[in-house]
Amino acid sequence: xxxxxxxxxxxxxxxxxxxxxxxxxxxxxxxxxxxxxxxxxxxxxxxxxxxxxxxxxxxxxxxxxxxxxxxxxxxxxxxxxxxxxxx
Length: 87
Hints:
Elements: H1 13-24, H2 31-45, H3 50-58, E1 62-66, E2 71-75, E3 78-79, H4 81-86
Antiparallel strand pairs: 1-2, 2-3
């Protein structure tokens, strides 16, 4: 089952999603964190040309781990979940 939650920034979507996943014993997948991870990776590469960006993304090591009560994002085997919320 997939339950999308939409809303304004800071409106509590992640908190609601994690709580709902916990209550339903389902995995929580934070797509916002996934998009932020892509942005973080590309901003650290310092590339701006589209072809160069596509080449960089094709070679990145990106992994997500989900559980009932948490979602982790790893870039090059380094956990960046908390950093994604600080930017």
